[in-house]
Write a structure and sequence with these properties.
With 204 residues, this protein is α+β, with helices and mostly antiparallel strands. It has helices spanning 21-29, 68-78, 81-94, 140-153, 186-200, and strands at 2-7, 10-15, 34-41, 45-52, 55-62, 103-111, 114-123, 128-129, 166-168, 174-176. The protein folds into 2 domains: 1-124, Phosphorylase Kinase, domain 1; 127-204, Orthogonal Bundle (Transferase(Phosphotransferase), domain 1).
Length: 204
């Protein structure tokens, strides 16, 4: 179940349960998290691995810098993609589909429905990135397309199904990362399959 709240101007959406994700978010704002590794750092996006209370999390900070007016107008009709994503992932996990990496907390600052700053607390998944040359078994491509198809059944698209957006777990399973939260409609599903055909040479 996803709960909501407000803290220091941020609109919060977070998973209910044993873990105090709001407390973790407060620790992040208070700089009480240890930076382990930075995965990406650009003008609009920063993705890092952090440690809080001996637990590892991925934190993604996003602030759109381009097409802000266009995105503002779209948000009036479509709302927040990330709010949609946290709810879809929570529902998928409740249904037993553990392919998408867990989304623990979303904190957004908004103008009306437009999130101009988003902070996402995500599950850290131990394992090897599927794009690494030593992790390319013959069935890997089939596992990825099967995983994406399963996510479609849960209302989640990949948006960018290249091997770098999948993790191979210790048990040989596939987990998906860096999901967009866009609508899982016929157009976006077709885009996923078009990209997978191009990347993997597979058919639906």
């Amino acid at each position: 179940m996803i709960q909501t709240g407000v803290y220091k101007g941020y609109q919060l959406h977070f998973k209910a349960g044993r873990n105090d994700y709001c407390g973790i978010f407060k620790s992040i704002l208070s700089l009480n998290a240890r930076l382990v590794e930075t995965y990406k750092c650009s003008r609009h996006t920063r993705v890092s691995l952090i440690e809080i209370d001996k637990k590892l999390y991925v934190i993604k900070i996003y602030s759109p810098q381009r097409k802000r007016v266009e995105k503002f107008i779209k948000s009036l009709f479509r709302g927040s993609y990330n709010e949609n994503l946290i709810r879809k992932i929570d529902s998928a996990h409740d249904n037993g589909c553990m392919i998408p990496n867990d989304f623990f907390l979303l904190a957004e600052k908004k103008i009306l429905s437009f999130p101009y700053l988003s902070i996402m607390l995500l599950e850290f998944i131990p394992g090897d990135n599927a794009s690494q040359p030593n992790n390319m078994p013959a069935m890997l491509s089939q596992k990825i397309i099967s995983a994406v198809t399963t996510m479609h059944s849960q209302g989640i698209i990949s948006g960018d199904p290249h091997k770098g957006n999948f993790i191979i777990t210790a048990k040989g399973g596939i987990r998906a990362i860096d999901l967009p939260g866009k609508a899982c409609n016929a157009k976006n599903i077709a885009k996923d399959f078009t990209l997978m055909k191009k990347i993997y040479g597979l058919h639906e």
